[in-house]
Design goal:
Elements: E1 2-5, H1 10-21, E2 27-30, H2 43-48, E3 56-59, E4 62-65, H3 67-77, H4 88-104, H5 111-117, H6 121-143, H7 155-169, H8 178-187, H9 191-195
Parallel strand pairs: 1-2
Antiparallel strand pairs: 1-3, 3-4
Helix pairs in contact: 1-3, 1-7, 4-6, 4-7, 5-6, 7-8
């Protein structure tokens, strides 16, 4: 497999965690979203992913984009360890939390949106994340065990950790979100989350390396 990734991309990080948890080795091709006006806009990368976004994963003779589509494919083809619970209700909760982050928070504060916000970009990002986290904190109070849904690491957790990292980068006050903070802390102690962390990628700038 070949993963096209950017060290700081939260969408790429989700996929890196899934690959690490499932023990899938891969080659990483960095796509710098800032350099050269954004390497994702090159003709070469556009041919790979017409949406001109990371991640993209070449695997089993196909190229997939969109992090949840990739994670779902890995889940269906390499089911151990599982990232979706067997119980249909818990499985629905995992998907709900993942969608909440992937559709309801992350796109509103990603690079392409922030570029258009000018001087207000930090305030905009903080507001988008805070309103999403207020809802998420409430949801997790009903679903969480050790992790987002019960005591098994799931696709929801793969979405949570990168989003908390974004929140910290934009200096969002995490005080009102004790459940999110607790789960994030526990997850960051797991090896798959450590090795896939933005501070430990081949394309991480020296000053940001762990």
């Amino acid at each position: 497999p070949i993963l096209y990734s950017y060290f700081r991309s939260s969408c790429s990080w989700r996929v890196r965690i899934a690959l690490a948890l499932k023990g899938i080795s891969y080659d990483l091709v960095p796509v710098n979203l800032i350099k050269d006006g954004g390497q994702q806009f090159s003709a070469e990368f556009k041919a790979l992913n017409p949406m001109q976004q990371v991640p993209a994963l070449k695997i089993d003779g196909i190229t997939l984009s969109q992090s949840l589509a990739i994670i779902n494919y890995l889940e269906e083809t390499r089911p151990n360890p599982r990232l979706l619970p067997q119980d249909p209700k818990k499985r629905a909760q995992v998907r709900m939390i993942a969608d909440h982050i992937v559709s309801g928070i992350q796109p509103l504060q990603n690079l392409s949106v922030l570029k258009q916000m000018g001087e207000k970009k930090t305030e905009w990002a903080q507001n988008c994340i805070a309103s999403g986290f207020q809802a998420l904190e409430q949801i997790l109070q009903h679903t969480a065990g050790r992790y987002c849904v019960g005591d098994e690491v799931s696709m929801a957790d793969l979405c949570l950790v990168p989003q908390v990292a974004n929140a910290e980068r934009f200096k969002v006050d995490m005080g009102p979100y004790p459940t999110i903070t607790r789960i994030n802390k526990v997850l960051l102690e797991l090896e798959a989350f450590k090795m896939s962390h933005p501070s430990r990628q081949p394309d991480t700038p020296a000053e940001l390396r762990a």
